[in-house]
Design brief:
By secondary structure, the chain is an alpha+beta fold. About 40% of the residues lie in helices and about 20% in strands. The longest helix has 13 residues.
């Protein structure tokens, strides 16, 4: 796909705000007719600009009231150690984000749980029990001021 034009950017912006728009609604928002709009969306998907569509859920209504940032230091950086950690991260439903970082810690994870007890169980019985983590530092999130998935286009 060539460089994105203004219609492509408008489509991406609109879908970031509401991925549930049908093709006609989207076309109306970006000033295109239905078929060209649909074609552009397909091309954006095929080119990887649109990775997937999701529903954003209300964590409070789902009784998931505890979030924390967990900084992780690994025991070592052996390939098997990192594979074991990566697999754990992919499979854990508690980990919302995990990023490799430069600095005092190897990773920073955003973790969610229903309460402090569940968070402690995750840390002590799952994460540290892996045997590949040297230490962790946990910062509880008291109140979320902003949470978005929208990228600035």
């Amino acid at each position: 796909m060539k460089e994105l034009d203004s219609h492509d950017l408008l489509i991406l912006q609109a879908l970031q705000k509401n991925s549930n728009l049908n093709t006609q609604e989207l076309a109306d928002q970006v000033n295109l007719s239905k078929t060209p709009c649909w074609r552009r969306v397909r091309k954006l998907e095929e080119a990887g600009y649109i990775k997937k569509y999701v529903a954003l859920l209300d964590q409070q209504k789902l009784d998931l009231s505890v979030m924390a940032y967990v900084q992780v230091s690994m025991l070592d950086h052996d390939l098997n150690t990192l594979r074991k950690f990566d697999e754990f991260v992919e499979l854990s439903p508690y980990i919302l984000d995990c990023n490799s970082t430069a600095g005092n810690f190897d990773y920073v994870m955003k973790v969610i749980a229903k309460d402090i007890v569940e968070l402690e169980n995750f840390l002590m019985r799952e994460l540290l029990h892996l045997g590949v983590v040297q230490s962790t530092n946990t910062n509880l999130i008291l109140r979320q001021k902003k949470s978005t998935t929208q990228l600035p286009l």
